[in-house]
């Protein structure tokens, strides 16, 4: 009897030792921070995201200082601080900026976190510089109250090839914005020609020229949906990001339909990466492991209506998001885009903007 | 002292040497080296200078047209704003117009708001769907509802929105006019408008010079008005500069274009400075009397002047009123320019106030702006004092033009220059890394406000009566004592007014803060920008308006506290 008890105790002790071992290698949301302060840069910190994240992370022992800025400003800051990095971790942004940071050697590659395999295929960086957390479809949106699905454009080129749409769509003239840049990339990469100017064929430049020439330029301080809803303007469609659709429809009483091109649509992939030169590498790795986990990304999606890149967390996203993000991703060479987008935008600003 | 007086030998005092060292260091370390460093990375990206950016710009029809438009707008705006600005000052300070106090408040509204919101305010009236346009369409159904666009629309909006400097500095100058000169001229039989032209306006010249230069620069670097009402036919160069400055690989174009604007500005400054050096414009009276408002003697002219004054009042005030009203609606109402009772809401105010409710960003911005305003004021007052005392020395010119350097580059690039210069240990910054510290943003704030402060403070020094200083010296006062007890009190109202304007300009700053703010201490501009630019809040547009109203309130309070009080001291 005593032997039996001793055996049971021994097994229990062994188990407990084993389970402690497991706890030490906790994964996902079970990872705890050590309280070392991490400086996080992001463009995705508004609407209470920053505060929510700081609080939620504190519950698990992370001490975060979150700096929130526009994507372009975050990019410029990281570039400018290269010699003496301030940030440890950066999240958000989009594939174009991620690839630019990689090419400047500003990120450090790291071993895939445990959740990396749960992310939809093709969204993580193949070389391990960043891993995807949220995806956002960049679509051509129109108002179903003013144009039926049959009459609406099916793909971007319809806008300039079909005269019926001339003067009815808005072209965003802010070339530093993430969404316009994704639209430009989505159009120009259809015309890649290594012999052409800046890697784009003449046909491609004519297309982008026609896109701007036949559209209505956006107005500073007035958003697309205000133009769509305004009976005094002819605008009924334009570029949109998927997570904005629901709220804009609510606000403006519009009913958004989107073009579903055969080639797919560009996705702005928000990711998470670690800054080259961070002094808190271990804590940064722990944070990434925690932050990208299905649990935390699911909570994030529920809080802020985003579409997680993590397929397990994706179930937490609302129906409209799921439907919009079901459109296939356009096959785009983001490294090529990152290398050229500045030059493309410069050419557009010099020659094609209305 | 005449312009050709023999040079005084500078006495080397310990204080003088310290100041010399400070200015040499400041100019090199903060103004010249970071910007040179930036220009080097921009123009010599591949190790060698290339003319490619110049060719790119010359080839671009769009860039050339925009540049041309800027150079059309600069001079024409100087004229129209000058005319309106002078008439505002005359209507409120010189002629006896009924209700002048109310009129003045109306004319001063441009001091508390600007940029996109201001132009939006005008669009609520004149734009497509605006109130005036709707009314006109009732009478002329065939007119173009988008009539308010292009050069004339830009000129119109900017003419009425760029009179702030007139309302402060020209008005100050007008109040300093010695009424005895006016009376003397009248006693000699001069007519009312002859006196105005030959006695009053000449005294205003130094200030008029200074504000005209500022107007010219404003016209050259116009941004919001062309963007909002310029249409496709009248775009100016600054929006393009901003786009290029925000794009990593296009900074060479941004730098080149702003150098073109900056050099034009410098050329103008140089010409104006030469003219300024030529003569004295101040009255020689020792015991000045306060101006008494003139009743316009010709009854017809009097009626016309009153009508003119009140038409101007309406033009100035209605946009502000509309912005305040629209700030209580949502983005939809703003976008469609329809004001209905049903869209009235307080939610936006609640949202914004809650979001900035931890008052940290407010405090951070107030501290930064106040500190920067004081520091830049102190630097410039000392510099101006030197320049005033040593008008013809080379060092004076070097000092003056060095402090104008920030006019050569857009704010974004100055901020980037600082960031790139001080993220490594530099000998000229005592081996301190500044990136990521609180101080770098303060330095940037000081730098970007230098040229404006310099120009306006210098005007104040130039309209000083030399006799005051001579008298103090004859009574045996030392240089420092004279400055502290005689000169400084006289220029104080202007210095305070400039500080208030600088404070108001900085409190909402975004361009510099974006790159330099400390992660734990975001400024107000950064905080608000993130709310209004939030992709997932379709009400961002409405928030912009509320933000503008909030800023109006802060600006108005600051102006009242600082300038209002400076004003009353002035009266004494």
Features:
heterodimer; A: 354 residues; alpha/beta; D-Maltodextrin-Binding Protein, domain 2; 2 domains; two-stranded parallel sheet; 13 helices; 11 strands; 40% helix; globular; B: 572 residues; mainly alpha; MetI-like fold; 25 helices; disordered N terminus; disordered C terminus
Describe the protein.
The complex is a heterodimer of chains A (354) and B (572). With 354 residues, chain A is of the alpha/beta class. Chain A has two domains: 27-135 and 267-324, 3-Layer(aba) Sandwich (D-Maltodextrin-Binding Protein, domain 2); 137-266 and 331-351, Periplasmic binding protein-like II (D-Maltodextrin-Binding Protein, domain 2), CATH 3.40.190. Chain A has helices at 2-24, 49-59, 71-80, 95-103, 158-161, 178-188, 202-213, 224-229, 245-252, 281-291, 294-304, 319-324, 334-352; strands spanning 37-42, 63-68, 89-92, 107-108, 130-143, 170-171, 192-197, 216-217, 237-241, 256-258, 267-275. In chain A, α2 (49-59) links the parallel β1 and β2 (63-68). In chain A, α4 (95-103) packs across α13 (334-352). The radius of gyration of chain A is 23 Å and the shape is globular. Residues 17-23 of chain A have low confidence and may be disordered. Chain B has two domains: 35-326, MetI-like (MetI-like fold, Orthogonal Bundle); 329-572, MetI-like (MetI-like fold, Orthogonal Bundle). Chain B has 25 helices and no strands. In chain B, α5 packs across α14. Chain B is globular. Residues 1-7 and 566-572 of chain B have low confidence and may be disordered.
């Amino acid at each position: 009897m005593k032997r039996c008890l001793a055996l049971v105790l021994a097994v229990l002790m062994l188990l407990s030792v084993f389970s402690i071992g497991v706890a030490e290698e906790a994964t996902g949301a079970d990872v705890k921070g050590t309280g070392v302060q991490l400086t996080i840069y992001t463009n995705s910190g508004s609407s209470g995201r920053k505060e929510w994240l700081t609080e939620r992370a504190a519950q698990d022992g992370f001490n975060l200082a979150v700096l929130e800025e526009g994507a372009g400003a975050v990019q410029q800051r990281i570039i400018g601080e290269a010699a003496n990095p301030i940030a440890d971790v950066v999240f958000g942004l989009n594939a174009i900026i991620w690839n630019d940071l990689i090419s400047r050697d500003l990120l450090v590659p790291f071993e895939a976190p445990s959740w990396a395999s749960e992310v939809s295929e093709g969204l993580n960086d193949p070389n391990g510089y960043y891993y995807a957390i949220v995806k956002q479809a960049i679509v051509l949106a129109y108002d179903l109250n003013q144009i039926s699905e049959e009459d609406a454009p099916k793909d971007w080129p319809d806008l300039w090839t079909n005269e019926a749409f001339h003067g009815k769509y808005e072209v965003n003239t802010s070339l530093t914005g993430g969404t316009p840049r994704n639209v430009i990339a989505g159009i120009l990469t259809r015309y890649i020609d290594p012999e052409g100017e800046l890697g784009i064929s003449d046909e491609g430049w004519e297309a982008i020229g026609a896109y701007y020439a036949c559209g209505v330029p956006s107005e500073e301080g007035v958003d697309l949906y205000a133009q769509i809803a305004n009976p005094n303007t002819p605008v009924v469609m334009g570029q949109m990001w998927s997570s904005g659709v629901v709220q804009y429809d609510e606000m403006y009483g519009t009913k958004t339909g989107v073009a579903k091109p055969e080639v797919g649509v560009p996705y702005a992939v928000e990711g998470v990466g670690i800054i080259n030169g961070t002094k808190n590498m271990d804590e940064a790795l722990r944070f990434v492991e925690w932050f990208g986990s299905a649990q935390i990304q699911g909570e994030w999606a529920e809080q802020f209506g985003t579409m997680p890149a993590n397929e397990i967390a994706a179930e937490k996203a609302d129906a409209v998001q799921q439907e919009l993000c079901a459109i296939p991703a356009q096959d785009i060479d983001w490294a090529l885009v990152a290398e050229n987008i500045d030059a493309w935008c410069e050419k557009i600003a010099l020659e094609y903007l209305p | 002292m005449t312009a050709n007086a023999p040079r005084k030998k500078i006495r080397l005092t310990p204080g003088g040497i310290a100041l010399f060292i400070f200015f040499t260091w400041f100019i090199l370390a903060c103004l010249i080296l970071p910007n040179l460093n930036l220009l080097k990375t921009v123009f010599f990206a591949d190790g060698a200078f290339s003319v490619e950016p110049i060719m790119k710009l010359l080839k671009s029809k769009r860039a050339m047209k925009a540049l041309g438009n800027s150079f059309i707008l600069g001079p024409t705006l100087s004229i129209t704003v000058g005319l309106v600005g002078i008439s505002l000052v005359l209507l409120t300070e010189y002629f006896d117009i009924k209700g002048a106090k109310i009129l003045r408040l109306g004319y001063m509204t441009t001091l508390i708001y600007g940029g996109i919101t201001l132009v939006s305010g005008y669009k609520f009236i004149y734009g497509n769907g605006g109130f005036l346009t709707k009314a006109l369409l009732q009478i002329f159904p065939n007119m173009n509802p988008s009539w308010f666009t292009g050069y004339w629309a830009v000129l119109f909006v900017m003419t009425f929105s760029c009179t702030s400097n007139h309302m402060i500095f020209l008005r100050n100058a007008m109040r300093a006019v010695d009424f005895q000169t006016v009376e003397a001229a009248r006693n000699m039989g001069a007519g009312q408008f002859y006196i105005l032209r030959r006695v009053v306006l000449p005294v205003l010249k130094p200030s008029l010079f200074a504000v005209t230069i500022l107007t010219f620069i404003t016209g050259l670097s116009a941004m919001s008005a062309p963007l909002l009402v310029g249409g496709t036919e009248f775009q100016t160069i600054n929006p393009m500069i901003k786009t290029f400055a925000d794009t990593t690989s296009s900074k060479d174009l941004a730098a080149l274009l702003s150098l073109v604007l900056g050099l034009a500005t410098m050329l103008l400054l140089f010409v104006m400075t030469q003219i300024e050096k030529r003569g004295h414009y101040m009255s020689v009276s020792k015991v000045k009397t306060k101006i008494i408002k003139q009743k316009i003697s010709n009854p017809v002219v009097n009626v016309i002047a009153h009508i003119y004054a009140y038409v101007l009042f309406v033009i100035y005030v209605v946009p502000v009123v509309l912005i305040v009203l629209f700030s209580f609606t949502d983005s939809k109402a703003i976008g469609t320019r329809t004001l209905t009772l049903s869209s009235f809401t307080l939610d936006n105010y609640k949202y914004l106030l809650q979001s900035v409710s931890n008052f940290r960003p407010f405090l951070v911005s107030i501290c930064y702006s106040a500190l920067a305003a004081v520091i830049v004021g102190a630097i410039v007052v000392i510099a101006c004092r030197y320049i005033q005392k040593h008008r013809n020395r080379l060092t004076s010119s070097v000092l003056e033009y060095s402090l104008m350097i920030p006019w050569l580059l857009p704010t974004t690039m100055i901020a980037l220059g600082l960031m790139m210069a001080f993220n490594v240990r530099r000998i000229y910054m005592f081996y301190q890394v500044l990136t990521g510290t609180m101080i770098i943003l303060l330095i940037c704030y000081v730098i970007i406000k230098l040229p404006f402060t310099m120009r306006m403070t210098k005007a104040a020094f130039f309209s000083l009566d030399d006799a005051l200083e001579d008298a103090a010296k004859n009574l045996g006062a030392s240089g420092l004592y004279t400055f502290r007890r005689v000169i400084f009190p006289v220029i104080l109202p202007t210095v305070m007014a400039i500080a208030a304007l600088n404070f108001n300009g900085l409190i909402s700053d975004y361009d510099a803060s974006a790159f330099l703010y400390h992660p734990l201490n975001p400024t107000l501009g950064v905080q608000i920008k993130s709310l209004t630019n939030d992709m997932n809040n379709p009400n961002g547009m409405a928030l912009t308006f509320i933000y503008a109203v909030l800023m109006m309130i802060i600006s108005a309070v600051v102006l009242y506290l600082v300038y209002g009080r400076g004003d009353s001291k002035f009266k004494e």
